[in-house]
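Contributing new records

If you add data, match the layout below exactly. Sequence lines come first and carry their own label; structure lines follow with theirs. Keep one chain per record. Anything else will be rejected by the validation script.
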Amino acid sequence: MSSTTFGHQGMEAVKKKDYAAAIPLLDQALASSNSPAWLLARAQAHQQLKNYDAALHDAELAYHSAAERGSGTSRKHMIDAQHRRSVLYFKLGRYADADCCAKWSMLLAEGRPAGEVDDVDKQVDQFDNYTVSYEDAVADCKSQPGQSAGSKMGVLAGIAGGDGGGTAKTGFENEWNRAYAWRSQVLGILDRLGWDNPGLKVNVTKIPPKPQKKVEKKVEPAPKPVVEKTDTKPVDANAPTPGSIPDEQLKLRVDFYQNNQSVTVSLFAKDAKKDDLSVIFSNNQVQISPLPRAAATYVQPGDREAASTFVLGGEIDPTKSRWTATPRKIELVLHKASPGQKWGTWGTEQIGATTTTTSSADPTPAATVTAPVPAPTPAAITTPSTTSSAPAYPTSSRTGPKNWDTFTTAEPGEDEEDADKGDVNFFFKQLYKGATPEQQRAMMKSFVESNGTALSTDWSDVGNRKVETVPPEGVEAKKWDS
């Protein structure tokens, strides 16, 4: 049969809720095409079978596949992909991430640009806890599609003291309503969480990381023969022995993100026992043990395979770094030794514990942490040095060129926003600070090449072309020597 036939049969099986039968059919279809519709159907099937990691993989791949195709159904598939991500993060106990994705689904349904910088994931307090409340979500309907100022809902909103809000119909009113209703359930739980609950942390990005390879179908191995030893204890004759599995298969799945102050690394290790973990920070490494290994169930505390050394992509301050653990992952918050410095990668994992835990260039003693430590208060965060050697970028500020990697210009005890009050570049500073490295690169290229007349955060748009100077209406652009 053709991939189209497999895809059609797989989607029909999902509609009939025969999820176990749908997955192999969709596997066959997706072997030759990353159809967003098929990926979303398989994500739903995996979710219903509680294969949450596989479902999240398909939802993220569906988002990228839809965006790259740019067809008439792309926005619908991107909206559905964000909603599916929201449901899956909810299932995984990541409630703040679930609400962010639901909000992004709503914004797409309103017709907003997919690459728009909206700071949905930046609404956190000094402890990095998500601050959006149930009441905020209920009131978040001013841009509801299909409710223009002249509609009944718009008129009622005006009478009630609102601005009449709403937007014209986009064709995605049902999707918007679905996400709006779903947020009430997500935020209802968020409002009941304690301040130290990891579900309050935002670890998600608007545009998900693109999966590098497809999830392969898991095939259950045939039963292993059992033989009897002389002591009559049954032993699996084909069970792997210590050291028989390559190190690459033992390594954990890792995700990370960073800001000017820290790098947050998520290590996905199921069933890691928080009370038993030993986490040792040094200036360029982190050692953790004992770690459960999905690929090697025989691992016991004390085995070489039970420990990992994470060689970091930059220097850290061990005394200010911290960690937390949940039944599904271990999260490291690594405080940068040089705030403002961008890491090209989080680092690499090496199986086993190393004997050297400090950098030869900086013999800082290792800090041993045997229990999670609380997040630092705002007073414990170090202000980046203004003498950094990072490049100074063009600016129209009256104070001259600025280093945009070191925005914190407030004096001790002074609020940063107050310090920058009146600076025409304050908005652009905040935009640049909250952008990804790729978005920052796009902003600088577009700003410099256009002589300050254009600012774009879309690298896919400006990366392969020169951004032309587009002066305001009534202004003529001239070269310096003219």
